[in-house]
Design a protein that fits this description.
By secondary structure, this protein is mainly beta. The protein has two domains: 460 residues, Beta Barrel (Porin); 147 residues, no CATH class. The chain is built from six helices and 33 strands. Strand 11 and strand 12 form a beta hairpin. The chain is elongated and about 125 Å long.
Length: 659
């Protein structure tokens, strides 16, 4: 009964969505894609399916034909089927940067079918429908409630896991026969009509998916959906034909006892594997278009048999289980699709989608019947999307072509309760089918960026080779007076703990003033007489006061911000590696002996470290405000050489990336 893919965005791309998987409908394609969604996302979609499946039975042997000897063409009397809603939600709870939780339910894109029990022949007389032993009516509902989690252990790998269970309900009408009790084959007086209603509320299953980004612009994805087994339990309303009712006095036992027995239908849902890869085309820093190809494998051969158990007695004997073997084959499918974005306004995008699909046959020609859409499938799809900020509206249409089949040696027989070998052959004839699908989807994103950020970071050994061949130059920092890493009031040699911004470039030694001229205060080594001779070079005095010297004879006190304004630092002394270098060599400082200078270094290093501890408490609160997640609609304004976003702009404010 399953005929296509779910979700308007995926359907518009021909079902090629394993590697993209960037909205909540990824539950059916690749749950690893949830980690691309930051903030909170809700997606609701619905589909309408039109299934045209006609059958013209061929008459031969002992089968009765109507009128001129040819059977009439039987059409599906309920071609349109409105699929249930598909609703999924994802969230990072506002707490996680690389973890996303998901919950919701989805329904497979399926269709019901119904055919008449009686038709009018050429003379206007009502006769039994020729397909009644194959199918009369089949409908129902299937939902997959699901919960999942996706996480990103490293920047180039996403992993997603889901637990889901199937809730299935079926309403079907099946007609069997008791051919050995009747003189004429397929005599309607010997029909046994069973109206079955059954359901199963819990058939556990699960899936796992991964996303891998080996090089910038390329994404690879995979999905494994586990098989599950469903046992639908219910009751059957059995109606025995008038011919069999007349024979009950001779049998001394009722044909069916009781008339509404309990029934169990056992189905198996197959294992599925999806593999896909897509390539992204960029326009500047934004994704412009992409193309994707997916391969699909479904193990239908293991789900071919359906067992029907009727808890009743027939002619005082327990009824045996009926095993219906559809002789299904494993199927392989190909999905190719892509999208192209057109920027209509600053926050408005038009997205065009298109795709194609192909799938191998699920049954052989001789095993064709009305219950299984067995021929190979070819399809074309198209889609349209409109994205305004965090709201997306998508529509898609697909048409599937199924070639006609002419069956002359059918294996489909009528169910016969009196013959283990089955009843007469009822599947010979001509089958014609086509499928149309229409889907709409609404997605709302809030509490985060509405669109996933493209990850263009090389991974593993590839990144190492890039760094070995061409070391990356340091990025030019953005000068921000509020940045705790480059605040000039904090000292160029002291850095707040936890600051992630690129440090400011080193300053040249600053001059000191003397008698209207300024002289460079440079370090003079005892063995370097040339440096000592050139240590004092006159320069014209600047119009404004020069910056403070890094190391001077009498430097102005460095005032720390309001949080530590009670603590005054006399001089600004380098720390860390610069101190080790300073203490490891004999240095002479004008107007300060070497031993006294070493004590000076140690004393002021302790003072600066004390000031740093006090300062960090105040800077930590400011850092938490600045290094928060960008709000919805924030635009990346600066990237590094690997394409990673360094800063965002939103409503005139700049936010630094947590990377």
């Amino acid at each position: 009964m399953e005929v296509g893919d779910t979700g308007a965005e995926a359907l518009g791309r021909g079902g090629a969505f394993v590697a993209k998987a960037d909205n909540p409908t990824a539950i059916n394609y690749n749950p690893a894609g949830f980690v691309k969604l930051r903030g909170h996302h809700i997606a609701v979609s619905a589909s309408a399916v039109r299934s045209v499946y006609d059958f013209t039975r061929a008459g031969f042997g002992g089968q009765r034909a109507a009128g001129d000897g040819e059977y009439a063409t039987i059409n599906n009397s309920a071609p349109w089927f409105a699929a249930p809603l598909h609703m999924m939600a994802t969230t990072d709870l506002g707490l996680f940067d690389h973890v996303t939780l998901a919950a919701g339910f989805y329904a497979p894109s399926a269709t019901s079918r119904a055919y008449p029990r009686e038709i009018e022949d050429a003379t206007g007389k009502k006769t039994p429908a020729p397909q009644r032993f194959d199918m009369v009516e089949m409908g129902g509902l299937m939902l997959f409630p699901s919960v999942g989690v996706a996480f990103r252990p490293v920047g180039w790998l996403d992993i997603g896991l889901t637990f889901q269970w199937a809730i299935s309900s079926v309403q079907t009408t099946t007609i069997a026969t008791a051919a050995t009790a009747c003189d004429v084959s397929e005599d309607p007086a010997c029909d046994i009509v069973m109206d079955i209603k059954a359901k199963d509320l819990f058939a556990p299953s699960g899936s796992a998916g991964v996303l891998f980004r080996p090089i910038p612009g390329l994404e690879l994805g995979a999905l494994l959906r586990l098989p599950s087994k469903s046992e639908m339990r219910g009751s059957a309303d059995v109606t025995v034909g008038s011919g069999l009712k007349r024979l009950e006095p001779y049998f001394k036992y009722p044909i069916m006892d009781p008339d509404n027995p309990e029934i169990t239908i056992t189905n198996t849902y197959p294992l599925m594997v999806r593999l896909g890869g897509r390539y992204i085309f960029y326009s500047g820093d934004e994704e412009q278009a992409d193309i994707e190809a997916d391969l699909i494998f479904e193990n239908w051969a293991s789900a071919s048999e359906r067992r029907i158990t009727v808890a009743a007695r027939s002619l005082d004997k327990p009824m045996e289980d009926q095993i219906l073997d559809s002789r299904l084959k494993n199927t392989f499918g190909l999905r190719i699709g892509g999208s192209y974005r057109i920027q209509l306004a600053r926050s408005l995008q038009l997205i065009l989608r298109g795709g194609a699909l192909a799938e191998t046959e699920s049954t052989g020609v001789s095993d064709t019947n009305l219950q299984t859409l067995g021929p190979r499938r070819l399809g074309l799809t198209s889609g349209l999307g409109l994205r305004w900020g965090g709201v997306s509206m998508d529509m898609a249409y697909a048409h599937l072509f199924l070639p006609s089949r002419v069956v002359n040696q059918s294996t489909t027989t009528a169910m016969d309760f009196t013959s283990p070998a089955g009843g007469p052959v009822v599947g010979n004839g001509t089958y014609r089918a086509s499928i149309d699908m229409f889907s709409v989807q609404l997605t709302v994103a809030f509490g985060g960026s509405p669109a996933p950020e493209p990850n263009r970071e090389p991974v593993g050994p590839i990144r190492e080779r890039i760094e070995e061949q061409e070391p990356l130059p340091p990025s030019e920092p953005e000068i921000d007076p509020d940045d705790p890493g480059i605040n000039p009031d904090f000292g160029s040699g002291v850095r707040a703990r936890g600051a992630t911004h690129t440090p400011a470039p080193a300053r040249r030694p600053q001059p000191r003033r003397k008698g209207g001229l300024q002289f460079d205060a440079e370090t003079v080594y005892r063995s370097d007489s040339a440096a000592a001779a050139s240590a004092a070079r006159p320069h014209p005095a600047p119009a404004a006061n020069p910056p403070r010297a890094r190391v001077t004879k009498k430097a102005r006190p460095l005032e720390v911000k309001d949080e530590v304004n009670a603590l005054m630092v006399e001089e600004e002394i380098p720390v860390g590696d610069e101190v080790d270098q300073l203490m490891g060599k004999r240095r002479v400082k004008r107007a300060r002996p070497a031993r006294r200078y070493r004590r000076h270094v140690r004393r002021h290093q302790r003072r600066l470290e004390q000031a740093s501890r006090v300062k960090r408490r105040a800077e930590y609160r400011s850092m938490r405000r600045r290094y928060r997640r960008p709000p919805a609609g924030a635009r990346c304004i600066r990237r590094d050489d690997l394409g990673r976003c360094l800063s965002y702009r939103h409503r005139g404010r700049i936010y630094l990336s947590r990377r």
